[in-house]
Amino acid sequence: MSGTHTIRMGDKGRIVVPAEVRERYGISAGVPLVLVETDGGLVILTRRQLRDRVQADLGGLDLAAELLDDRRQAAEAAVLQ
User: Fold this and answer.
1) How far lies 11's CA from each of 15, 64, 72, in Å?
2) What is the pTM of this model?
3) How far apart (Å, rounded) are the C-alpha atoms in residues 62 and 60?
4) Residue spans per domain, the chain
């Protein structure tokens, strides 16, 4: 398995994902892919890969608890005024 593939963009802005990569990741015609612009360059992911990456980046964070805490503090501040 090679992690680097040389591809070319066609005249209509289309790129071809190599067959071995499509097979490895279960990508077939019509599967939506997400193009992410990062500081390091462009990354193409399936929606599932993007979801998994976001979940990993947010791992350990309890965003709902943080939001509730912020709302409680704002409510307390409003009562004290």
Assistant:
1) 9, 46, 55
2) 0.61
3) 7
4) 19-80
